[in-house]
Amino acid sequence: MKTRHQRWMGIGLGLLLLCGAVYFVLNAFQSNLVFFFTPTQVAAGQAPSDGHFRVGGLVKVGSVQRSDMTVEFVVTDTVQEVPVRYTGLLPDLFKEGKGVVAQGRLDADKRFVANEVLAKHDENYMPPEAQHALDEASKARIGAGVVR
Questions:
Q1: What value does the mean pLDDT take over residues 91-98?
Q2: Residue whose C-alpha is closest to residue 127's, from 139, 119, 116, 135
Q3: Vertex 129: Cα angle to 26 and 32 (nearest 5)
């Protein structure tokens, strides 16, 4: 085989290996990708009914119910509400009326079953997605003439 043919075979093999590596990286990235939805989007059916996603907003005051290691609460964006069930230890900063993001999936009863709950870490921070959702809900309420 000529040197020129060997060089082209080497380049072709290198490109094939590079394409394979890119495929595996993108496949791993897509399987770990988790989207964020607001309670309004979940109520509208925009969230996947068969996959994992995140829902965020405020923990509704008076909605937290504890039973052993299982906690049920409601996440709201001040327009819609999503009931959440979580089994495990909650973050120390988890409180009613404070920001929260829960990751999990919807069950058959349209209740969100969380496998992870994240709470804001200080008084000035709220996850950007949750803050944007609350701002949009506030704009929608003001535009509709509803004031709470």
A1: 85
A2: 119
A3: 20
Nearest partner of 104 among 57, 51, 65, 67, judged by Cα: 51
| Amino acid present at 69 | M
Query: Distance between CA atoms of 43 and 77, rounded to whole angstroms?
Result: 11
The full DSSP string for 67-105 is ETTEEEEEEE-SS-EEEEEEESPPPTT--TTSEEEEEEE
- The Cα–Cα gap between 103 and 38 comes to 12
**3-state DSSP helix/strand/coil % of the chain, to nearest 5:** 35, 30, 35
Question: In this structure, are residues 127 and 99 in contact, taking their beta carbons and an 8 Å threshold?
Answer: yes
- Of 73, 55, 25, nearest to 134 (Cα)? 55
Tokens read off for 140? 């929608």
Domain ranges (residues) in the chain: 1-33, 35-144
- Percent of the chain surpassing pLDDT 70: 86
CA distance 119 to 105: 18
If DSSP codes are grouped into helix, strand and coil, which group holds residue 56? strand
Summarize pLDDT for 37-51 with one digit per residue, the tens.
Answer: 888 888 888 888 778
- CATH superfamily entry for domain 35-144: Nucleic acid-binding proteins (2.40.50.140)
> Which amino acid belongs to residue 21?
A
